[in-house]
Amino acid sequence: MQQTLITLPHEIAGLSIFGFGWVLICWAIFGGVWLTHFYMQSAQRKEEGVGHPLVPILIIGVIIAFIIPFIEPQDSEGPTGIQIRGYGFFVLMGVSGGILIASIQARRQGVHPDVVFTMTLFLFLGGVLGGRLWYVVQKWTEFAIIDRGGNIAWGDTLPKILKFTEGGLVVYGAFVGGLIGCSIFLFRRKLPKLATLDLIAPALALGMFFGRLGCFMNGCCYGGLCTDDLWGVQFPIGSPPYMRHLDQGLLFDRPLKQRGIEADFDYRSNYLWKGRITAVQPDSLGQAGGLHQGDTINIEMRLVDGAFSEYYEKGLFGETAFLLKNGGRVLDNLTVKEMPARSLKVYPAQVYSSINGGLLCLLLWAYFPYRKRDGQILALVFIFYPISRFLLEWVRSDELGQLGTQLTISQLFSVLTVLFGIGLWTYTTIRKQPLAYPSRSSLELAKPSDT
Fold first, then answer.
1. Residues 103-115: pLDDT tens digits?
2. pTM metric for this prediction
3. Which of 57, 197, 279, 323, by CA, is between 20 and 30 Å from 271?
Protein backbone atom coordinates (compact mmCIF):
# COMPACT_ATOMS: atom_id res chain seq x y z
CA MET A 1 0.00 0.00 0.00
CA GLN A 2 1.27 3.45 -0.95
CA GLN A 3 -1.48 6.04 -0.95
CA THR A 4 0.76 8.98 -1.92
CA LEU A 5 3.53 8.52 -4.49
CA ILE A 6 4.83 12.10 -4.71
CA THR A 7 3.63 15.61 -3.91
CA LEU A 8 3.87 18.19 -6.68
CA PRO A 9 4.68 21.71 -5.46
CA HIS A 10 2.04 24.38 -5.91
CA GLU A 11 4.25 26.40 -8.22
CA ILE A 12 7.49 26.29 -10.18
CA ALA A 13 9.44 29.45 -11.06
CA GLY A 14 6.66 31.59 -9.63
CA LEU A 15 3.93 30.04 -11.80
CA SER A 16 1.41 27.54 -10.45
CA ILE A 17 1.44 24.02 -11.90
CA PHE A 18 -2.34 23.66 -12.13
CA GLY A 19 -4.98 26.33 -12.52
CA PHE A 20 -3.80 29.00 -14.96
CA GLY A 21 -0.27 27.65 -14.97
CA TRP A 22 2.18 25.21 -16.53
CA VAL A 23 -0.15 22.28 -17.16
CA LEU A 24 -2.76 24.51 -18.80
CA ILE A 25 -0.07 26.03 -21.03
CA CYS A 26 1.09 22.56 -22.11
CA TRP A 27 -2.50 21.47 -22.70
CA ALA A 28 -3.19 24.61 -24.77
CA ILE A 29 -0.17 23.83 -26.96
CA PHE A 30 -1.28 20.22 -27.35
CA GLY A 31 -4.84 21.35 -28.11
CA GLY A 32 -3.58 23.78 -30.73
CA VAL A 33 -1.57 21.04 -32.45
CA TRP A 34 -4.58 18.72 -32.28
CA LEU A 35 -6.90 21.32 -33.84
CA THR A 36 -4.38 22.17 -36.56
CA HIS A 37 -3.96 18.52 -37.44
CA PHE A 38 -7.74 18.09 -37.49
CA TYR A 39 -8.35 21.00 -39.87
CA MET A 40 -5.55 19.88 -42.19
CA GLN A 41 -7.38 16.58 -42.69
CA SER A 42 -10.93 17.72 -41.96
CA ALA A 43 -12.55 16.27 -45.10
CA GLN A 44 -11.02 12.83 -44.60
CA ARG A 45 -11.80 12.78 -40.89
CA LYS A 46 -15.40 13.85 -41.39
CA GLU A 47 -15.80 10.91 -43.75
CA GLU A 48 -14.29 8.58 -41.12
CA GLY A 49 -16.64 9.82 -38.39
CA VAL A 50 -14.02 11.73 -36.42
CA GLY A 51 -15.67 14.43 -34.34
CA HIS A 52 -14.44 17.95 -33.73
CA PRO A 53 -11.89 17.92 -30.87
CA LEU A 54 -12.81 21.35 -29.47
CA VAL A 55 -15.30 20.04 -26.88
CA PRO A 56 -12.93 17.52 -25.20
CA ILE A 57 -10.12 20.10 -25.32
CA LEU A 58 -12.30 22.63 -23.50
CA ILE A 59 -13.57 20.07 -20.96
CA ILE A 60 -10.06 19.01 -19.95
CA GLY A 61 -8.99 22.66 -19.90
CA VAL A 62 -11.78 23.46 -17.43
CA ILE A 63 -10.71 20.55 -15.22
CA ILE A 64 -7.09 21.78 -15.21
CA ALA A 65 -7.96 25.44 -14.67
CA PHE A 66 -10.77 25.18 -12.11
CA ILE A 67 -11.49 21.68 -10.73
CA ILE A 68 -7.97 20.60 -9.72
CA PRO A 69 -7.14 23.91 -7.93
CA PHE A 70 -10.46 23.59 -6.08
CA ILE A 71 -9.44 20.26 -4.53
CA GLU A 72 -5.80 21.23 -3.86
CA PRO A 73 -5.07 21.04 -0.10
CA GLN A 74 -4.41 24.31 1.70
CA ASP A 75 -3.00 25.43 5.02
CA SER A 76 -2.81 28.82 6.69
CA GLU A 77 -0.22 29.96 4.13
CA GLY A 78 -2.18 28.87 1.05
CA PRO A 79 -2.13 25.89 -1.37
CA THR A 80 0.32 23.14 -0.43
CA GLY A 81 0.55 21.26 -3.73
CA ILE A 82 -1.15 18.31 -5.38
CA GLN A 83 -0.51 14.83 -4.05
CA ILE A 84 -0.08 12.21 -6.77
CA ARG A 85 -1.96 9.26 -5.32
CA GLY A 86 -1.20 5.65 -6.13
CA TYR A 87 -4.87 5.14 -6.92
CA GLY A 88 -4.99 8.04 -9.36
CA PHE A 89 -1.74 6.94 -10.99
CA PHE A 90 -3.10 3.47 -11.77
CA VAL A 91 -6.40 4.91 -12.99
CA LEU A 92 -4.36 7.00 -15.43
CA MET A 93 -2.41 3.89 -16.43
CA GLY A 94 -5.71 2.12 -17.09
CA VAL A 95 -6.97 4.98 -19.26
CA SER A 96 -3.70 5.15 -21.22
CA GLY A 97 -3.52 1.40 -21.71
CA GLY A 98 -7.18 1.26 -22.69
CA ILE A 99 -6.72 3.95 -25.33
CA LEU A 100 -3.69 2.09 -26.70
CA ILE A 101 -5.35 -1.31 -27.18
CA ALA A 102 -8.63 0.22 -28.38
CA SER A 103 -6.69 2.23 -30.99
CA ILE A 104 -4.90 -0.92 -32.15
CA GLN A 105 -8.21 -2.74 -32.49
CA ALA A 106 -9.75 0.25 -34.28
CA ARG A 107 -6.98 0.30 -36.89
CA ARG A 108 -7.52 -3.39 -37.52
CA GLN A 109 -11.20 -2.67 -38.21
CA GLY A 110 -10.50 0.31 -40.45
CA VAL A 111 -11.65 2.88 -37.86
CA HIS A 112 -9.60 6.04 -37.34
CA PRO A 113 -7.94 5.98 -33.88
CA ASP A 114 -9.08 9.57 -33.24
CA VAL A 115 -12.62 8.21 -32.99
CA VAL A 116 -11.48 5.99 -30.13
CA PHE A 117 -9.51 8.76 -28.46
CA THR A 118 -12.41 11.22 -28.47
CA MET A 119 -14.86 8.56 -27.33
CA THR A 120 -12.51 7.57 -24.52
CA LEU A 121 -12.74 11.10 -23.12
CA PHE A 122 -16.53 10.75 -22.95
CA LEU A 123 -16.11 7.28 -21.47
CA PHE A 124 -13.62 8.48 -18.87
CA LEU A 125 -15.62 11.51 -17.77
CA GLY A 126 -18.87 9.52 -17.66
CA GLY A 127 -17.15 6.66 -15.85
CA VAL A 128 -15.61 8.90 -13.20
CA LEU A 129 -18.89 10.75 -12.63
CA GLY A 130 -20.92 7.55 -12.48
CA GLY A 131 -18.44 5.65 -10.32
CA ARG A 132 -18.01 8.55 -7.92
CA LEU A 133 -21.73 9.30 -7.71
CA TRP A 134 -22.51 5.67 -6.88
CA TYR A 135 -19.82 5.64 -4.19
CA VAL A 136 -20.89 8.95 -2.65
CA VAL A 137 -24.56 7.94 -2.51
CA GLN A 138 -23.60 4.58 -1.03
CA LYS A 139 -21.41 6.18 1.67
CA TRP A 140 -23.08 9.57 2.02
CA THR A 141 -22.65 9.72 5.80
CA GLU A 142 -18.87 9.62 5.34
CA PHE A 143 -18.92 12.62 2.98
CA ALA A 144 -21.57 14.94 4.40
CA ILE A 145 -20.12 17.51 6.81
CA ILE A 146 -22.77 19.06 9.03
CA ASP A 147 -22.38 22.60 10.35
CA ARG A 148 -23.51 23.81 13.76
CA GLY A 149 -26.94 24.64 12.40
CA GLY A 150 -27.51 21.04 11.35
CA ASN A 151 -27.17 21.83 7.63
CA ILE A 152 -24.77 20.35 5.11
CA ALA A 153 -21.62 22.47 4.82
CA TRP A 154 -21.24 22.23 1.06
CA GLY A 155 -18.04 24.28 1.07
CA ASP A 156 -16.35 21.46 3.01
CA THR A 157 -18.35 18.56 1.59
CA LEU A 158 -17.79 19.23 -2.12
CA PRO A 159 -13.96 19.07 -1.97
CA LYS A 160 -14.25 15.65 -0.29
CA ILE A 161 -16.58 14.46 -3.04
CA LEU A 162 -14.27 15.69 -5.81
CA LYS A 163 -11.14 13.98 -4.45
CA PHE A 164 -11.71 10.81 -6.48
CA THR A 165 -7.97 10.28 -7.03
CA GLU A 166 -7.75 9.19 -3.39
CA GLY A 167 -10.04 6.24 -4.07
CA GLY A 168 -13.78 5.78 -4.09
CA LEU A 169 -15.05 4.74 -7.52
CA VAL A 170 -17.59 1.93 -7.81
CA VAL A 171 -17.04 -0.26 -10.89
CA TYR A 172 -20.72 -0.69 -11.68
CA GLY A 173 -21.34 3.02 -11.35
CA ALA A 174 -18.40 3.63 -13.67
CA PHE A 175 -19.85 1.12 -16.14
CA VAL A 176 -23.22 2.86 -16.21
CA GLY A 177 -21.71 6.35 -16.39
CA GLY A 178 -19.18 5.31 -19.02
CA LEU A 179 -21.84 3.72 -21.22
CA ILE A 180 -23.97 6.86 -20.95
CA GLY A 181 -20.97 8.98 -21.95
CA CYS A 182 -20.18 6.68 -24.89
CA SER A 183 -23.83 6.63 -25.98
CA ILE A 184 -23.90 10.44 -26.09
CA PHE A 185 -20.80 10.41 -28.28
CA LEU A 186 -22.10 7.66 -30.57
CA PHE A 187 -25.49 9.32 -31.06
CA ARG A 188 -23.83 12.63 -31.89
CA ARG A 189 -21.43 11.04 -34.37
CA LYS A 190 -24.06 8.62 -35.77
CA LEU A 191 -21.63 5.72 -35.46
CA PRO A 192 -22.68 2.04 -35.15
CA LYS A 193 -23.25 1.69 -31.44
CA LEU A 194 -22.79 -1.99 -30.65
CA ALA A 195 -19.86 -2.34 -33.04
CA THR A 196 -18.04 0.64 -31.55
CA LEU A 197 -18.71 -0.50 -27.98
CA ASP A 198 -17.23 -3.88 -28.92
CA LEU A 199 -14.03 -2.06 -29.89
CA ILE A 200 -13.57 -0.61 -26.41
CA ALA A 201 -14.80 -3.61 -24.39
CA PRO A 202 -11.29 -5.11 -23.93
CA ALA A 203 -10.08 -1.65 -22.90
CA LEU A 204 -12.70 -1.58 -20.12
CA ALA A 205 -11.36 -4.86 -18.76
CA LEU A 206 -7.79 -3.55 -18.93
CA GLY A 207 -8.96 -0.51 -16.99
CA MET A 208 -10.24 -2.83 -14.26
CA PHE A 209 -6.86 -4.55 -14.16
CA PHE A 210 -5.05 -1.29 -13.42
CA GLY A 211 -7.86 0.19 -11.34
CA ARG A 212 -7.82 -2.66 -8.85
CA LEU A 213 -4.06 -2.27 -8.46
CA GLY A 214 -4.88 1.32 -7.55
CA CYS A 215 -7.31 -0.01 -4.95
CA PHE A 216 -4.48 -2.09 -3.49
CA MET A 217 -2.26 0.99 -3.30
CA ASN A 218 -5.07 2.89 -1.59
CA GLY A 219 -6.05 0.09 0.80
CA CYS A 220 -9.73 0.10 -0.20
CA CYS A 221 -11.84 -2.82 -1.51
CA TYR A 222 -9.97 -5.17 0.84
CA GLY A 223 -10.74 -8.79 1.65
CA GLY A 224 -11.92 -10.53 4.78
CA LEU A 225 -9.74 -11.88 7.57
CA CYS A 226 -7.20 -14.44 6.38
CA THR A 227 -5.54 -17.03 8.61
CA ASP A 228 -3.20 -18.23 5.85
CA ASP A 229 0.26 -16.71 6.26
CA LEU A 230 1.00 -17.22 2.56
CA TRP A 231 -1.97 -15.27 1.14
CA GLY A 232 -2.71 -12.78 3.90
CA VAL A 233 -1.59 -9.15 3.61
CA GLN A 234 -1.50 -6.42 6.25
CA PHE A 235 -2.17 -2.71 5.83
CA PRO A 236 -0.62 0.16 7.81
CA ILE A 237 -2.17 2.30 10.49
CA GLY A 238 -4.83 4.67 9.21
CA SER A 239 -5.68 2.49 6.20
CA PRO A 240 -9.32 1.42 5.59
CA PRO A 241 -8.80 -2.20 6.74
CA TYR A 242 -6.88 -1.05 9.81
CA MET A 243 -9.62 1.34 10.85
CA ARG A 244 -12.28 -1.30 10.15
CA HIS A 245 -10.50 -3.76 12.42
CA LEU A 246 -10.16 -1.05 15.04
CA ASP A 247 -13.89 -0.34 14.86
CA GLN A 248 -14.55 -4.06 15.28
CA GLY A 249 -12.45 -4.10 18.45
CA LEU A 250 -9.93 -6.55 16.99
CA LEU A 251 -6.75 -4.56 17.63
CA PHE A 252 -6.76 -4.26 21.41
CA ASP A 253 -5.29 -7.69 22.17
CA ARG A 254 -1.67 -6.52 22.41
CA PRO A 255 -2.12 -3.54 24.77
CA LEU A 256 -4.54 -5.50 26.95
CA LYS A 257 -2.25 -8.53 27.21
CA GLN A 258 0.50 -6.20 28.42
CA ARG A 259 -1.88 -5.50 31.31
CA GLY A 260 -2.70 -9.16 31.85
CA ILE A 261 -6.20 -8.89 30.38
CA GLU A 262 -7.90 -10.84 27.61
CA ALA A 263 -11.31 -9.73 26.38
CA ASP A 264 -13.74 -9.89 23.47
CA PHE A 265 -15.22 -6.61 22.22
CA ASP A 266 -18.35 -5.64 20.33
CA TYR A 267 -18.33 -3.32 17.32
CA ARG A 268 -17.66 0.30 18.28
CA SER A 269 -20.75 2.30 19.26
CA ASN A 270 -20.11 6.03 18.92
CA TYR A 271 -16.88 6.50 20.91
CA LEU A 272 -17.04 3.32 22.98
CA TRP A 273 -16.09 -0.35 22.70
CA LYS A 274 -17.90 -2.68 25.11
CA GLY A 275 -16.20 -5.95 26.01
CA ARG A 276 -16.31 -8.94 28.32
CA ILE A 277 -13.20 -10.23 30.06
CA THR A 278 -12.27 -13.81 29.15
CA ALA A 279 -9.12 -14.10 31.31
CA VAL A 280 -7.10 -12.13 33.89
CA GLN A 281 -3.45 -13.04 34.51
CA PRO A 282 -2.20 -13.16 38.12
CA ASP A 283 0.01 -10.35 39.38
CA SER A 284 -1.12 -8.09 36.56
CA LEU A 285 -2.61 -4.64 36.27
CA GLY A 286 -5.95 -6.27 35.58
CA GLN A 287 -5.86 -8.26 38.80
CA ALA A 288 -4.65 -5.23 40.75
CA GLY A 289 -7.61 -3.33 39.36
CA GLY A 290 -10.01 -5.92 40.74
CA LEU A 291 -11.01 -7.40 37.39
CA HIS A 292 -12.30 -10.95 37.04
CA GLN A 293 -13.29 -13.26 34.23
CA GLY A 294 -16.78 -12.38 33.02
CA ASP A 295 -16.60 -8.72 34.08
CA THR A 296 -17.50 -6.04 31.59
CA ILE A 297 -14.80 -3.67 30.43
CA ASN A 298 -14.97 -0.64 28.18
CA ILE A 299 -12.47 1.16 25.99
CA GLU A 300 -13.34 4.78 25.31
CA MET A 301 -11.97 6.87 22.49
CA ARG A 302 -10.08 9.83 23.93
CA LEU A 303 -11.04 12.98 22.03
CA VAL A 304 -9.33 15.74 24.03
CA ASP A 305 -6.48 17.64 22.36
CA GLY A 306 -7.22 15.93 19.06
CA ALA A 307 -5.42 12.76 20.15
CA PHE A 308 -7.62 10.33 18.29
CA SER A 309 -7.94 12.64 15.30
CA GLU A 310 -4.16 12.64 14.90
CA TYR A 311 -4.10 8.87 15.29
CA TYR A 312 -6.82 8.38 12.71
CA GLU A 313 -5.65 10.83 10.07
CA LYS A 314 -1.86 10.89 10.35
CA GLY A 315 -0.89 7.77 12.28
CA LEU A 316 1.18 9.69 14.82
CA PHE A 317 2.55 7.64 17.71
CA GLY A 318 3.06 8.36 21.38
CA GLU A 319 -0.24 10.02 22.35
CA THR A 320 -2.90 8.68 24.66
CA ALA A 321 -5.78 7.73 22.41
CA PHE A 322 -7.94 5.40 24.53
CA LEU A 323 -9.15 5.11 28.10
CA LEU A 324 -9.53 1.65 29.66
CA LYS A 325 -12.54 1.69 31.97
CA ASN A 326 -14.39 -0.60 34.34
CA GLY A 327 -17.75 1.04 34.81
CA GLY A 328 -17.02 4.71 35.43
CA ARG A 329 -13.57 4.02 36.80
CA VAL A 330 -10.51 4.68 34.62
CA LEU A 331 -8.05 1.81 34.95
CA ASP A 332 -5.35 2.98 32.56
CA ASN A 333 -4.55 4.91 29.40
CA LEU A 334 -3.80 3.16 26.11
CA THR A 335 -1.33 4.99 23.91
CA VAL A 336 -1.14 4.86 20.14
CA LYS A 337 2.39 3.52 20.42
CA GLU A 338 1.06 0.38 22.10
CA MET A 339 -1.36 -0.34 19.27
CA PRO A 340 -0.39 -2.62 16.36
CA ALA A 341 1.30 -0.82 13.48
CA ARG A 342 -0.59 -2.91 10.93
CA SER A 343 -4.01 -4.44 10.46
CA LEU A 344 -4.80 -8.10 10.86
CA LYS A 345 -4.10 -10.24 7.80
CA VAL A 346 -6.74 -10.01 5.07
CA TYR A 347 -7.17 -11.58 1.67
CA PRO A 348 -5.71 -9.42 -1.14
CA ALA A 349 -9.11 -9.07 -2.83
CA GLN A 350 -7.82 -6.16 -4.92
CA VAL A 351 -5.13 -8.35 -6.47
CA TYR A 352 -7.66 -11.10 -7.20
CA SER A 353 -9.92 -8.54 -8.88
CA SER A 354 -6.99 -7.16 -10.86
CA ILE A 355 -6.11 -10.62 -12.15
CA ASN A 356 -9.77 -11.12 -13.01
CA GLY A 357 -9.76 -7.93 -15.09
CA GLY A 358 -6.56 -8.94 -16.88
CA LEU A 359 -7.90 -12.40 -17.76
CA LEU A 360 -11.17 -10.90 -18.99
CA CYS A 361 -9.21 -8.49 -21.21
CA LEU A 362 -7.25 -11.38 -22.75
CA LEU A 363 -10.45 -13.37 -23.31
CA LEU A 364 -12.21 -10.49 -25.06
CA TRP A 365 -9.14 -9.69 -27.16
CA ALA A 366 -8.75 -13.31 -28.24
CA TYR A 367 -12.44 -13.77 -29.09
CA PHE A 368 -12.80 -10.49 -30.99
CA PRO A 369 -11.79 -11.87 -34.45
CA TYR A 370 -14.29 -14.73 -34.05
CA ARG A 371 -17.36 -12.66 -33.17
CA LYS A 372 -20.32 -13.23 -35.47
CA ARG A 373 -22.49 -10.24 -34.55
CA ASP A 374 -21.95 -6.73 -33.26
CA GLY A 375 -22.53 -6.52 -29.53
CA GLN A 376 -21.26 -9.99 -28.67
CA ILE A 377 -18.02 -8.73 -27.12
CA LEU A 378 -19.96 -6.28 -24.97
CA ALA A 379 -22.38 -9.06 -24.03
CA LEU A 380 -19.46 -11.20 -22.83
CA VAL A 381 -18.41 -8.37 -20.52
CA PHE A 382 -21.90 -8.22 -19.05
CA ILE A 383 -21.93 -11.99 -18.55
CA PHE A 384 -18.45 -12.91 -17.35
CA TYR A 385 -17.57 -9.88 -15.23
CA PRO A 386 -20.65 -9.99 -12.96
CA ILE A 387 -20.22 -13.74 -12.44
CA SER A 388 -16.64 -13.29 -11.27
CA ARG A 389 -17.58 -10.17 -9.30
CA PHE A 390 -20.36 -12.07 -7.52
CA LEU A 391 -17.84 -14.71 -6.43
CA LEU A 392 -15.13 -12.21 -5.48
CA GLU A 393 -17.56 -10.35 -3.22
CA TRP A 394 -17.46 -13.34 -0.86
CA VAL A 395 -13.75 -12.67 -0.37
CA ARG A 396 -14.30 -9.00 0.43
CA SER A 397 -15.57 -7.71 3.75
CA ASP A 398 -15.84 -3.94 3.22
CA GLU A 399 -19.53 -4.03 2.27
CA LEU A 400 -22.59 -5.26 4.17
CA GLY A 401 -25.61 -7.23 2.95
CA GLN A 402 -28.53 -5.28 1.51
CA LEU A 403 -32.34 -5.64 1.34
CA GLY A 404 -32.43 -8.08 4.23
CA THR A 405 -30.03 -10.53 2.54
CA GLN A 406 -26.38 -11.49 2.89
CA LEU A 407 -25.77 -10.22 -0.65
CA THR A 408 -23.97 -6.92 -1.17
CA ILE A 409 -25.32 -4.26 -3.49
CA SER A 410 -22.69 -5.32 -6.06
CA GLN A 411 -23.85 -8.95 -5.91
CA LEU A 412 -27.47 -7.94 -6.37
CA PHE A 413 -26.53 -5.74 -9.31
CA SER A 414 -24.39 -8.58 -10.72
CA VAL A 415 -27.47 -10.78 -11.02
CA LEU A 416 -29.28 -8.10 -13.03
CA THR A 417 -26.20 -7.50 -15.17
CA VAL A 418 -25.86 -11.18 -16.09
CA LEU A 419 -29.51 -11.25 -17.16
CA PHE A 420 -28.91 -8.14 -19.26
CA GLY A 421 -25.82 -9.71 -20.84
CA ILE A 422 -27.70 -12.89 -21.73
CA GLY A 423 -30.48 -10.79 -23.21
CA LEU A 424 -27.98 -8.77 -25.26
CA TRP A 425 -26.30 -11.93 -26.58
CA THR A 426 -29.69 -13.37 -27.53
CA TYR A 427 -30.67 -10.12 -29.24
CA THR A 428 -27.49 -9.98 -31.31
CA THR A 429 -27.92 -13.62 -32.34
CA ILE A 430 -31.54 -13.20 -33.43
CA ARG A 431 -30.78 -9.91 -35.15
CA LYS A 432 -28.48 -11.56 -37.71
CA GLN A 433 -27.06 -8.27 -38.95
CA PRO A 434 -23.58 -8.29 -40.55
CA LEU A 435 -20.64 -6.74 -38.75
CA ALA A 436 -20.41 -2.97 -39.13
CA TYR A 437 -16.61 -3.10 -38.73
CA PRO A 438 -15.35 -6.22 -40.50
CA SER A 439 -11.61 -6.63 -40.10
CA ARG A 440 -9.28 -5.50 -42.87
CA SER A 441 -8.20 -9.08 -43.42
CA SER A 442 -11.78 -10.17 -44.06
CA LEU A 443 -12.30 -7.26 -46.45
CA GLU A 444 -9.18 -8.23 -48.37
CA LEU A 445 -10.40 -11.82 -48.63
CA ALA A 446 -13.71 -10.55 -49.98
CA LYS A 447 -12.03 -8.63 -52.82
CA PRO A 448 -12.06 -10.34 -56.22
CA SER A 449 -8.73 -11.73 -57.33
CA ASP A 450 -6.85 -9.98 -60.12
CA THR A 451 -5.78 -13.29 -61.64
1. 999 999 888 888 8
2. 0.82
3. 279
